[in-house]
Each structure stands twice: as C-alpha cells, then as structure tokens.
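S1.2 Input.
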Amino acid sequence: MLIWLGTMLLFGNLLALPLILTPKSFRAPLVQWGISAICRLFLSGCAACGLMKLDLKALDALNGQSGLLLAPNHPSMIDAFLILSRVRRVVCLMKASIGSNLFLGAGARLAGYVSNRDSAQMFRDAIRSIDQGNIVLIFPEGTRTTHQPVNPIKGAATLIAHKARSPVQTILITTNSAYLSKGWKIWRPPEFPIVYRAIPGKRFAPEADMLKTTRRMQQYFRSSLERSIDPALRLDR
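S1.3 Output.
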C-alpha cells in the first residue's frame, strides 16, 4: 500500500507540473482537490484490504467553509492524510523539507502550501491565505504527540487566527495504534487493523488575549482526549 501511495504521488506530481504555467488562482484549488483524491483513494484502499478502519465522515461538514484555521492534535504522521481525504480544499502549513521531497514537493508547492522555512514569512503567507478565503491546516502541537493526550500547544495557531480574524476549528484525532507516531520507522509494520477516528471539535473565536486562547485550547484537548493513542479504541461498524 505504501508503494501504491508513492506511485500515485509521483504520477500526480508529473500530471500537475504543466499547471505551473497557469495562474495560482486556477492551479492551487485544482491541485488541492487532486491531493485530497489521492489521500482518499489510498485510505479507501487500506480499508478495503482490511488494514484500516476509518471514521472520518464527520469532517465532511467542513467542506465549503472559508477563512478557517484547522487545528488538529497530531498523534501520527498520517494525520494530514486523514483530514485531506475528507476536506477537499486545504492549504497546509508544512515543514520546509517537504518542498524538496520527491513524492510530495511539487504537489505541495503547486497547491499553495505554506513552508515554515522562514517563520515570519510563514505567518504572513498563512494570514494572507485565510484572508483570501482558504481553509488553512496547522498542527498546533508543532510536532507529533509525545506526551499523552497532547503536547503543549504552541502559540502559532492563535497568533495566525488573531491576525487573520479567523476562528480556530479544532479536530480530535484518535487511533488504536502508535503506527507512524514519533520515532516509528515507516517500514516497521503495525498490528492490523489500525483504527482512525477524526471529528470536528470545539471552534474558538479569535481573541486579543492569544495566550488565554492557547490555554483554553490546551485545556479543551486534554479534557476531550483521555488518550489520542488508545489500544482499546474500537469502531461499532
């Protein structure tokens, strides 16, 4: 399945390259939709093969919204795929290294994703993207979770929300497996099936007191998630 995903990403990059000649206003939404389709196809294939059980449909309610900052917790490397598979138009804040990644780089750049190479420029680009009506995705922990249920929340999300006058939509992600969590090697197999659930959480209005909002988000994640990686997690279906 990982080889299949890599193949789809490589071919997607090749197909998208001619779009570099088109205006960003045309190519970015189109490539965002293509990335969403690849993520959804990959996860659907994993579910069909019995490798995963997924509960992601609640995220569909976020489609069609604008000027919104998504802030999920981050138990594993696959979290962005979970969200992008259901929310079709998203601008991600990404690590600078992704921009030169063979499988992800071209698509990420063409989709208008925001690099964290320069933090000041990252904030400006993220705020501008929200002002233009986009949905922007940021992981407010800053890295994958190492302390259950969440790491300390950084101030980047609330700063962007305050400057862009945008609400922060939290997303609660839970899984039964530590697969692709911090320190997990990508080729190390987990026990199957892996269960993933992602649901929209509380929406926080932008406030002038950004530290207060950050603390409220921290309290919310901790009160809503006993554990983000819970071996006992099951799906009814």
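S1.4 Remarks. The chain has a mean pLDDT of 95.
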